[in-house]
Amino acid sequence: MNPSCLQYALTEEERRTFNEKGYLIMENALSPDQVELLTAPFDRIYASKIQEGHDLKTALFYPNFIPDHHSFLDLVDYEKILPKVWGILGWNIYLYHAHMIATPPSGQEKNDKTFGWHQDSGRVNMEMESHPRPRLSLKVAYFLSDISEPGRGNFWIIPGSHLKDNLEISKNGKGQPEGAIPVCVKPGTAVFFDRRLWHAASPNWSDITRKVLFYGYGYRWIRTKDDMTVQHLWESSDPIRRQMLGASVNCNGHYSPTDADVPLRTWLKEHQPELFDK
């Protein structure tokens, strides 16, 4: 990890925004060249799934894509993003989940049906005994297509809803909850969001395909949410990337980590000591 990455460290204003609203938008996180580099393997995967029989009118949810191309792997510890992730969650983290989503044009007329609003992590939201629910993890969404206008399969959110355990949904199945907004961003934008933020996918009423890569970071004692078949990448990765890919000395190291389990902690002690004791 190059110390130059600290120019992208989480600022106090960003921390305040994330804590209050539950999300953070970083424009131009990816350059046009990076967007092009990532889009090529994304399109190849999408085309192969269509050849295998995926319905052209429905969204493709494809997890465990990291091993498919080196450009996906390079985002695991991306210098513009990871410092903000550890700035929010601390050093005992790893990539517990990753998935890509392609949302093609639906071919349907625009309507006012209520979207599928939810918080991430499934049973966690029913079985954790606290209020508000614990943060535990966050996701970073990298947008590869232009969704700067509504109606393009936009990700919808309710700012500040990460501190609410319940959401009032329309009983007649029409309309969205109070305060709901679409996330409208250009290609290359990264959106960080708290797993507790109430959010929803929406239909794509446009003529372009929405393309997004999601990277989920959580504490190392959280189980992976998909197969994450990345173990063969450990040997060729530097220590901090190995940590992000789930490497550990032993099982207890997930709960009581040594320096060998969490090289990020050692690195931060030297380069960003104000975070070391958090």
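(ticket continues) Second input and output from the same batch:
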Amino acid sequence: METQKEKVKCLIIGSGPAGYTAAIYASRAGLKPVMYQGLQPGGQLTITNDVENYPGYPTGINGPQMMEDFKQQAERFGTDVRYGIATSVDFSGKPHRVTIDEQTEIEADTVILATGASAKWLGLESEARLNGSGVSACAVCDGFFYRGQEVAIVGAGDTACEEAHYLSNLCSKVYMIVRRDEMRASQIMQNRVKNTPNIEILWNSVTEEILGEHAVEGAKIKNTVTGETTEIKVTGFFVAIGHEPNSKIFQPYLEHDESGYLKTIPGTSKTNVDGVFACGDVQDNVYRQAVTAAGTGCMAALDAERYLASLEDH
């Protein structure tokens, strides 16, 4: 099949809060952005039922509806939103080249990367089935719905400790399920968790199944040393075993940390390649919230606009 070619001023890859915000700003600035939505149009928010912490929605909104609102706003200003996945890139020269679905080559003066990150999951059938019905990968997003209830969280790193502590302020009890007899988390985070009376750490433990037909009702936990299984009664089950940035195809060209998060020049969305900008969770392993992603999307569009203006000046 012959490769189709197309030239654009601004290409946006990814379509969560960061991508759509970048699109709104870029299209209002006359950059005529073309956006490819990627594997999960709308990003991680499309598997989030209720979003209650985004400003401007006083009664909350469900994630898919919110992303549809963002999309319509971007399209209203002229963003060309398309289905498709970036399958390879060449950032070695100008213009930047991005291949979509292995058949369309886009030449772009500026590229905004908003490909996000994907939560790592345990891989259980019950986890997938109850995702959004008690199973969540974001305690800060969803912990509020379990006020006064008993919940469980899986993980042993700093994020898991931070989220367990966050949940302990809302929930009556938090079970922390840790695979080994020690944690990976920093000592200060471990101490915080161990000194919180309503957090119970289940050491040497793995989750065999999340219980419940239509919503989480409990979890079956196996002790890897004794082989004994027990059931705990919980209404919320949080998975905090890490995220993986969707950055693999960009890594040969762009600086990234050991986990694959793209590095940007502090205070900007600029990568180490001129004209390529990164925003949202693909470059943020700290906050990972819709509102912070949207903020960096705005930065990326403004940075792209200034970059293009500087080229015209020359």
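Agent notes: The two ends are 38 Å apart (CA to CA). The helical segments are 17-28, 63-76, 125-129, 139-142, 158-168, 187-194, 290-313. Closing as not reproducible unless the customer responds.
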